[in-house]
Design brief:
Layout lengths: L3 H9 L18 E11 L5 E11 L4 E10 L6 E3 L2 E3 L1 E4 L4 H6 L1 E2 L2 E2 L5 E4 L2 E4 L4 H6 L14 H11 L1 H4 L3 H4 L8 E6 L17 H14 L8 H26 L5 H12 L25
Antiparallel strand pairs: 1-2, 1-11, 2-3, 3-6, 4-5, 7-8, 9-10
Helix pairs in contact: 1-9
Length: 290
């Protein structure tokens, strides 16, 4: 029988490859709109978690549903640069339809509908509709409504259209696993580690010479200063990662400890959190800040 410790160890060590991510609710390039956890369990100690993060990414030019996968039996994963990654992206809104109704990062004044998963949903320009939903419009220009604000209103009215379908959730989870639990809100800590490949002194020297040659030999730093600066950055990144692991890894706090209990036993009644949920978008004001 699989243990809670084994499940938590797998969550702490979630990286299947260089480009894997933990659930990043505060992602600085994506305004948070909604999130959800789906827990799966099967025979032979198999388990998986599919975490949903809905957000508006101005750089990605759309409202995107990212699905993050964790578990001990994942399959059919996406790849990048020859390595497995533990997430993929779904676009609930019809792409051309979305582009025709937006102007940069705001909704066009004459936009009326979005086709979302085959259904037409109405768009609101009424400020009171947003206020009623707890959304205070930033309105940098009179009457302007940003796209994350539109998404945050729509999720209150059409939640089912913006959540992942079972087909999407099972994309990288074996079909024989059963979905045993869904969590719509929870206490969360982002767990972001700085990726820093190990670089030898020889490699550092080669990098220095390459950069020096790029500028015709007129490089502002000598090698000793260049190497010292790099090693100091390397040390700072290591200290940051140590603090992240100490304070924010899944096994360090209640949410994932309880989820591990549920998975290990199959008893969903064991999920009795005492920490106040913080996954609502209002708790992540820095999301999308860049």
């Amino acid at each position: 029988m699989i243990t809670e410790y084994q499940i938590l160890a797998k969550l702490d060590d979630y990286k299947l490859g260089y480009y894997c991510l933990f659930i990043d609710l505060g992602h600085v390039y994506s305004y948070l709109i909604d999130s959800r956890l789906n827990i799966f369990k099967g025979d032979d100690d198999k388990w998986a978690i599919a975490a949903e993060r809905l957000g508006y990414n101005p750089r990605g030019s759309g409202i995107m549903l990212d699905i993050y996968y964790f578990g001990n039996c994942l399959t059919n994963l996406e790849h990048y640069n020859g390595q497995d990654i533990n997430y993929y992206t779904v676009y609930p809104i019809e792409w051309n339809d979305f582009n025709e109704t937006v102007d940069g990062e705001v909704l066009k004044s004459d936009a009326k509908i979005w086709n979302t998963r085959g259904r037409q949903i109405e768009l609101s320009h009424d400020k009171q509709d947003y206020l009623n939903a707890g959304i205070e419009i930033k309105e940098y220009e009179p009457g302007e409504i940003s796209l994350e604000e539109v998404g945050r209103l729509l999720i209150t009215k059409h939640r089912d259209l913006f959540r992942a379908t079972d087909e999407e959730l099972y994309k990288s989870i074996p079909k024989e696993l059963k979905k045993i639990f869904v969590i719509d809100e929870w206490y969360h800590r982002d767990f972001n580690e700085i990726i820093q490949p190990t670089i030898s002194d020889e490699h550092l020297r080669t990098t220095y010479e390459f950069n020096k040659n790029l500028v015709g030999g007129e490089y502002p730093l000598d090698f000793e200063t260049f190497a010292s600066m790099f090693r100091q950055q390397e040390k700072s990144a290591g200290e940051y990662n140590q603090n992240q692991y100490q304070d924010n890894r899944p096994s360090s706090y209640e949410t994932w400890q309880l989820i591990a209990k549920v998975i290990a036993t199959g008893d969903t009644t064991l999920y009795k959190p005492t920490l106040k949920p913080n996954t609502h978008w209002t708790n992540w004001p820095d999301s999308g800040s860049m």
